[in-house]
Amino acid sequence: MLIKKIYLENFRNYQHQEIVLNDNINVFFGNNAQGKTNILEALYFCALGRSFRTFKENELIKFNENISKIVIHYEKQNRENKIEISLNKNSKKMIKLNDIKINRNSELVGNLNLVIFSPDDIIILKQAPALRRKFLDILISQLKPNYVHILSEYNKVLEQRNAYLKTKNVETIEIWDEQLASFAEKIYEYRKMYIQKLQEKMEKIHPSLTNGKEKIIIKYKTGFTNKEEFLKKIKYNLQNDLWKGYTHEGTHRDDFEISINDKTLNLYGSQGQHRTAILSLKIAELDIIKEEIGENPILLLDDVTSELDLERVNSIFNIVKDYQVFITCTDINSILKYDCLTKNIKLYNIENGNVVSE
Ligand SMILES: Nc1ncnc2c1ncn2[C@@H]1O[C@H](COP(=O)(O)OP(=O)(O)OP(=O)(O)O)[C@@H](O)[C@H]1O
Ligand SMILES: [Mg+2]
Fold first, then answer.
1. If I label 52, which of 65, 136, 148, 298 is the partner at 20 to 30 A Cα–Cα?
2. Are 205 and 280 in contact (CB under 8 A)?
3. DSSP per residue over 166-182, as a string?
4. Which atom number of ligand 1 is nearest to the Cα of residue 31?
C-alpha cells in the first residue's frame, strides 16, 4: 500500500498544501508546533474516519474557517484510490471513496490500512482499559469491516438499555438483553481471535527485542465467553444496574493484560519494559495487518527518536525500512544517523503550516 499524494485545505494550521510522497521513507522535520503531527493526523483521519487526538472534529478545521478538506491518493493492490473528507462546522462530515459518497464510517475503515506509533502509546498499557479496548477495536476494525458494524450496534443497544434502566420500569428489559448478548458474543469471538494472533506474533517479537531475556504473554480479560453466560450475568446484575442507572458489566468493560516473565506488566513493569512491550504490540499489529491484507500497511512514527533510546529506535527502523513510513522529528540528524533508512528517503521541512520538500 502506498500513499502517493495528500492535499490539505484549511486542515489544522495548513491553508492549501499539496504533498507528493515518497514510496519509502518520508521525514517531516521542523521546530515544535509547526504542523508535523498534523500531517500524520490527516492520514490517520482518512484511514479511520477519526483523529487520534480529538473527538471534536471542528478542532481540525483551521481557526477562523468553516470548511476543511483532506484528499489522499493511494495505491492498494496496484489500483489507484482516492479518499476525500470534507469537514463543515455546521454539518456532518462528508466522506468520498473514489468519488462516491459513503455514509458510514464502517465503509471507510479498512480501505487505507495503517499503524501509528507515538510515544504517548506507552499509556495504552498503563492506564484504564478503555485505551486497550480502543487499540484492539481499531486493529480488528481495519481488517473486519463487519466488526465496526457489530460494535456500533452493541453500543447503540447498550445506550438504549441504559436509558431504559433509568426509567426504573424494566418489564421488557429482556428484549435489550437478548440483543446485547448476541452482539456481545460476536465481539467476544473477534477479540479472542485477535488476542490469540497478537500472542503468536509477540512471543516471537518480544524475545528478539530483549535478547531473549523476556517472555511476554497477552491475556484477554472478559467476564463471559458466550451468549448464555452473558445473559446469565446481566440478569444477575439487574438490581445493581437499576440502582446505578447503567449496565455495569459486559463487553464494554473488556480488557487485556500483558505479563512479562509471568509478572503483570502494569503492576510490576519498569518504564523501559512498558516501552518494549508496547513496541512488541505495535510490531505485532503491523505483522497481522500485513499478513491479512497481503501487503505492507502504512506506518506513522510520531517523534519516536526523542522518546525512545537508540537501541529501540534501531529495532523499529530495521523492521520498518521496507514499509512506506512517515516519520516526524525536530532534529533531522536524529534520523539520518540510521544507515538503514537512508536508501530511499525524502525530507520535508515543516515551517508554520508550510511544507518544503528537500
Ligand atoms: N484548528 C487549527 N487551526 C490552526 N492552527 C491549528 C489548529 N489546530 C492546531 N493548530 C496549530 O498547529 C500547531 C501544532 O501542530 P502539530 O501538533 O502538528 O505540531 P508539531 O510540528 O508536531 O510539533 P511538536 O514538535 O511539538 O510535536 C500549533 O501551532 C497549533 O496552534
Ligand atoms: Mg508533533
1. 65
2. yes
3. HTS--TTHHHHHHHHHH
4. 25
Domain chopping of the chain, boundaries: 1-113+297-358, 121-295
37 close to ligand 1 (CB < 6 Angstrom): yes
CATH for 1-113+297-358 (3.40.50.300, 3.40.50.1580, 3.20.20.330, 3.40.47.40): 3.40.50.300
Q: What are phi and psi of 188, to 5 degrees?
A: -55, -45
**Which DSSP letter does residue 127 get?**
S
Sign (positive or negative) of CA dihedral 347, 349, 355, 356: negative
Q: How far apart are CA 85 and CA 8, in angstroms?
A: 10
Pairwise CA distance, residues 102 & 117, whole Å: 28
Q: Check pocket membership of 329 for ligand 1, CB cut-off 6 A.
A: no
Give residue-wise pLDDT tens across range 255-305: 999 999 999 999 999 988 999 999 999 999 999 999 999 999 999 999 998
* Placement of cell 479498512 in the chain: 110
Cα–Cα–Cα angle for 88, 47, 24, rounded to 5 degrees:
125
| Cell 503531527, located at residue | 37
CA–CA gap between residue 88 and residue 65 (Å, rounded) = 9
Which of 37, 65, 356 maximizes ligand 1 atoms within 8 Å of its Cβ, making it the mutation to test the pocket? Answer: 37
Using CA atoms, how far apart are residues 231 and 227, in angstroms rounded to an integer?
6
- 311, 205 Cβ separation under 8 angstroms: no
Ligand closest to the CA atom of residue 33 = 1
Q: Report the CATH number of the 121-295 domain.
A: 1.20.1050.90
Q: Are strands 114-117 and 325-329 parallel, antiparallel or unpaired?
A: unpaired
pTM value surpassing 0.85? yes
CB-based contact 358:349 (threshold 8 Å): yes
State the Cα–Cα distance between residues 208 and 140, nearest whole angstrom.
25
d(CA 55, CA 103): 18
* 174-202 residue pLDDT tens: 999 999 999 999 999 999 999 999 999 99
